Amino acid sequence: MKLLISLSFMFFTLTLSAQDVDFANTLQQAEQGDADAQYMMGLLYDNAIGLDRNLAEAARWYEMASQQKHIAAQFNLAQMYRYGEGLPQDMAQSLYWFKQAAEEGNDPQAQYVLGDFYRYGEGVELNHNEAFRWYILAAEQTHMEAEYMTGILIADGVGAPENDFMALRWLRKAAKQGHAGAFYALGEMYEKGEGVNENLAQAFVWYTAASELGNTQAVARLDLLASNLEPELLNQAENSAQNCITSAFQTCE
Question: How far apart are the first and last CA of the chain?
Fold first, then answer.
């Protein structure tokens, strides 16, 4: 089956203010080779925290920390090479540092980005099998977007054998973390009876959750299902949908 793909991008971010950082001490430790301090210096320059923004300096400190296998620094350095921020764009270097974080650091965010690289042919030859390999590695570490993409690829038979039962498993995992696209995909599968017996009332619940999370396409599906469900069944579905929302999407079926 073909399911709609909803995309978002993950980045290493940190909420800091200048008051949170002892700049002189951090700089001293960074110059003495402390990887965490080097990463922090990169963040300070990257985000203009107590300093003028200087992406070249940020990249320099990230690279120092990356050479010492600092996973978050490797990820951020890879992003800077990817987009040409603070240094010339270099997809080979971007790929290298993402793989360092993904392989040696087993970092799910880096694994997810590598999945995107291979799925869309960004800086590499398009390879759906390789994309699936990276997505499922991240999904197994409960990375929400990777869980969703793993479910979508299995449902569509892209990069992995088509298996609606397994697709449902991964989409449910992403849905429990509040992924709107996963709820919509579940609604489609329950509405069409793919991997599960057709169940319009349960599809109504999934679409309601998707709509609650901002998926606009779910609204049209809800209107159609509401017109096709018997009043008593619709009332039950609406109550179940409300329970789903009030349980923070943990009790939805």
Answer: 22
Separation of alpha carbons 42 and 64, rounded Å: 9
Q: Taking a C-beta distance cutoff of 8 angstroms, is the pair 226, 201 a contact?
A: no
CA atoms of 157 and 134, how far apart (whole Å): 16
Q: What values do phi and psi take at 167, rounded to 5? A: -60, -45
Q: pLDDT tens digits for 23-51?
A: 889 999 999 999 999 999 999 999 888 88
Question: Whole-prediction pTM value?
Answer: 0.89
Q: DSSP label at 68?
A: T
Percent of the chain clearing pLDDT 70 (strictly above): 92
Residue 42 CB contacts under 8 Å (≥ 6 apart), including other chains = 57, 58, 59, 60, 61, 62, 65, 73, 76
Are 212 and 245 in contact by the 8 Å Cβ rule? The answer is yes
